[in-house]
Design a protein that fits this description.
Blueprint (H helix, E strand, L loop, with lengths): L6 H23 L7 E6 L9 H6 L3 E6 L3 E6 L3 E7 L4 E7 L3 E6 L4 E4 L3 H6 L10 E3 L4 H8 L14
Antiparallel strand pairs: 1-2, 1-6, 3-4, 4-5, 6-7, 7-8
Length: 161
């Protein structure tokens, strides 16, 4: 082992494995209860397969919802394909796990966000940051209560070298 443990990539793989396992369950049993997914993905990823008109409409990223109407879900080790309804017109999409930016199930306040190297390059500072970041949304009541408090801002610039 020469450079150390790459925890970021290990977490990405584990989180993508979680998405694969969830989608495999949906493929065999359907969506249980109130579960539904918002999946945001990079339309520029070389292995994404979407209709040209969708690519033109969503040239950078696209969020799809798997809830009431979806068909032909096919989950593989590299990604999944699904037919979704766009204005009463079904379209087949293939989304590799590597293209996924966020995966959210708001029914249970669960979400995952994947940060890419491009995201890190867009940052103004070179400070390391955790990669990937699990996301947990809060109930609306809690969000309303939190907005009443003033924010405490802490600058970390004095600790940087």
């Amino acid at each position: 082992m020469s450079g150390g443990i790459d925890y970021g990539n290990l977490m990405h793989r584990a989180m993508r494995g979680l998405i694969q396992e969830v989608l495999t369950g949906v493929q065999s049993d359907g969506l249980p209860g109130e579960h539904h997914f918002f999946i945001t993905f990079d339309t520029h990823h070389p292995d994404v397969e979407i209709a040209d008109w969708l690519y033109d409409r969503y040239p950078g990223e696209m969020t799809v919802v798997m809830q009431h109407w979806f068909a032909d879900l096919d989950v593989t080790d590299d990604g999944f394909s699904v037919s979704l309804n766009f204005g009463d017109a079904p379209e087949r999409l293939y989304i590799p796990y590597d293209a996924i930016k966020t995966f959210v199930d708001p029914s249970v306040e669960f979400g995952l966000r994947f940060e890419t190297q491009e995201d890190a390059e867009d940052e103004e500072d070179d400070a390391p940051r955790p990669d990937p970041v699990p996301v947990r949304s809060e109930p609306a009541e809690k969000k309303k209560a939190d907005t009443a408090k003033p924010a405490d801002v802490v600058s970390l610039d004095s600790f940087r070298k």
